[in-house]
């Protein structure tokens, strides 16, 4: 499966520094949860830049229930897609529940599809519910990409700063969900996890 131009697969990346989870509560498992799999690593890439510049079949948009949230990722996608995307959202009265995914055409984007999802707000007293909802965001976006026949997906970091998710916890949820999907499904063939400039990738 050909990756988007300029994107290096995880299997071709240098060895990442180890993360000390000793101070993280609740901490991820200390033993490896998943065995090394070269085939999975060939289908995964990490990239930082303008998500709309990638030549992929689908991109994700992290937004609110009315698909109108103003954040760096959403604003850029709407700008490049052109007025037709906003018009469709308004005309069809599109809405998206927390953890769900809604698919629209990409219009003037390089991608054929935009997969919209709503990340939950994180409150420590509702830790389990927030983690489950974030898992559902990634799972439903990946399943929607598969159902749309997308062979490549640019997957943005869904937990925007305003959602208050601890970065390490959010990264653990994201990577676990992506790994399970890649083990079980053939599509998308390549998943590119994107950090959007000027936001630094939090994985």
3D structure, described in words:
- The protein has 5 helices and 6 strands, in the order αββααββαβαβ.
- Helix 4 packs parallel to helix 5.
- It has 203 residues and is α/β, with parallel strands linked by helices.
- The protein starts with 37 loop residues before the first helix and ends in an 8-residue tail after the last strand.
- The protein has a 6-stranded mixed sheet with strand order 1-6-5-2-4-3, with helices on both faces.
- The protein is globular, with a radius of gyration of 16 Å.
- Helix content is 31%, strand content 16%.
- It has a single domain, classed as Leucine Aminopeptidase, subunit E, domain 1.
Distinctive features:
single chain, 203 residues, alpha/beta, Leucine Aminopeptidase, subunit E, domain 1, 6-stranded mixed β-sheet, 16% strand
List the helices and strands and how they pair.
Elements: H1 38-41, E1 44-48, E2 58-63, H2 72-81, H3 83-91, E3 101-105, E4 113-118, H4 127-147, E5 152-156, H5 167-184, E6 190-195
Parallel strand pairs: 1-6, 2-4, 2-5, 5-6
Antiparallel strand pairs: 3-4
Helix pairs in contact: 4-5
